[in-house]
Amino acid sequence: MAFEVKVPTVGESITEVTIGKWTKKDGEFVNANDLICEIESDKATFELNAEVSGVLKINAQEGDTVAIGTIICSIQEGAGSAAKPVADAAPKATPAPAAAPSAPAANATPIEVKIPTVGESIAEVTIGAWAVKSGDAINAEDLLCEIESDKATFELRAESAGVIEVLARTGDTVAIGTVVCKIIPSAGGAKAASTTSAPTAAAASTGGGNYAAGHASPAAGKILNEKGVDASAVAGTGKDGRITKEDAMNASAAPAAKPAAASAPATPAKAAVAGREDTRVKMTSLRKTIARRLVAVKSETAMLTTFNEVDMKPVMDMRSKYKDTFKEKYGVGLGFMSFFTKAVCIALQDFPSVNAYIDGDEIINHNYCDVSVAVSTPKGLVVPVIRNAETMSFNEIEAEIVRLAVRARDGKLSMDEMTGGTFTITNGGIFGSMLSTPIINSPQSAILGMHNIVERPIAMNGQVVIRPIMYLALSYDHRIIDGRESVGFLVRVKQLLEDPSRLLLGV
């Protein structure tokens, strides 16, 4: 019996996908839950696993664009028992043909490694950092380099074993489909032979033969360059020995300059001059995109900002009372963001125009709240999205914020995690900001700016009292949001925060 494997639904608005890479060959036996292939949409990459065991029959080729629901392969369940023993017997008959692969590989055609399609609207990427150098022997699936788009960072891996020839340099901006390196297949056997004949030497020079050992991530590499520290002098604590951002920040410049200063009398004057050097750093694709979009928002929207102040004492009292119990029960801290997110969701339902946006001559309204949270990373500002925040509890919101923030700082956010938000919250208060006018995150129509909490005297019940006050700023597109809606929305948020019990009751 043949089991048909169809392209699953991978997103509400996604109607077609591209076959990325088959991990199994046509006619090969597969087990249930084995990875069959990778499929790519305009937002992310997904894995397709076998639902049953049997012999694979491939109907679609790598690079084909197919619609959701298309049959891309089938699995012959009945042939499994017969096919698998044959496959197991094959390697036993060839115990030592080590020289066989090298003969045809001597004049084999080099494999061109091209920049893959990483998103529907992405036409070019920037080469982040190479994990290998020209002449290195690599295995299939080894990390070659990191590529950066205007939205996220992706990994480029080897399609086969061989010797690498690097064609593009770190920092180069290249178009999708550009050949950035070549793999000479003859190297597969050479690498295996070398590692077999001299395992001790390999382990000593590369940290156990791991390609990642001693290589810096893009963020770490930038920091090391600014400090003037050689990556080879830094011990990596990341996965497989990779140098992380924290390793780079903790690294100090080589102390070799001090003896030179002591031996040469004229050095102090030169050192003073060296402190006035200018450095020129190329903007990343992400930074260029952020700059372009911010300028576009200022020129394409009728942006206006309204302000209000919130007495944070009720929220702070509730947080102080329950934060320890909250942490013990749910394993996450109780911060201010969950209060603000819940308040925003309720206010968005009361003022739906704030949760809408303009698309040409039409207004798109949402009956859900996908709240974007601005996160500052070494590569720039990103806004991961909390999906269906209106249905989430306080602990679910806090856990999701922590998860997204960690992935953002590690550069692991997917396209789906950064797109589709309906409203944005940004917290400049964590950096000490007292008041600001945040810029709308297009195509959204509004953004809420939080600021630092400062004790100020206010009039309350005919008396002057000291209270912890936070200024709130709502920037909005006046083309779709009128003054009544903008002011009413902000007043509603203020009302909910100054009486947190309303958040639980929804009143």
Topology, pairings included?
Elements: E1 2-6, E2 16-22, E3 29-30, E4 35-40, E5 45-49, E6 54-58, E7 65-67, E8 71-76, H1 80-92, H2 102-105, E9 111-114, E10 124-130, E11 137-138, E12 143-148, E13 153-157, E14 162-166, E15 173-175, E16 179-184, H3 187-197, H4 199-206, H5 218-227, H6 245-250, H7 257-263, H8 267-274, H9 285-300, E17 303-311, H10 313-330, H11 336-350, E18 357-359, E19 362-364, E20 371-373, E21 375-377, E22 380-382, E23 385-386, H12 394-409, H13 415-418, E24 423-427, E25 446-450, E26 453-460, E27 463-477, H14 483-498, H15 501-505
Parallel strand pairs: 20-24, 24-25
Antiparallel strand pairs: 1-8, 2-4, 2-7, 3-6, 4-5, 6-8, 9-16, 10-12, 10-15, 11-14, 12-13, 14-16, 17-27, 18-19, 20-23, 21-22, 25-27, 26-27
Describe the protein's architecture and organization.
The chain is globular, with a radius of gyration of 28 Å. The chain contains 15 helices and 27 strands. The chain folds into four domains: 2-90, RNA polymerase II/Efflux pump adaptor protein, barrel-sandwich hybrid domain (OB fold (Dihydrolipoamide Acetyltransferase, E2P)), CATH 2.40.50; 98-203, RNA polymerase II/Efflux pump adaptor protein, barrel-sandwich hybrid domain (OB fold (Dihydrolipoamide Acetyltransferase, E2P)), CATH 2.40.50; 212-254, Irregular (Dihydrolipoamide Transferase), CATH 4.10.320.10; 297-505, Chloramphenicol acetyltransferase-like domain (Chloramphenicol Acetyltransferase). Strands 17, 20, 23, 24, 25, 26 and 27 form a seven-stranded mixed β-sheet that branches. It is an alpha+beta fold and 507 residues long.
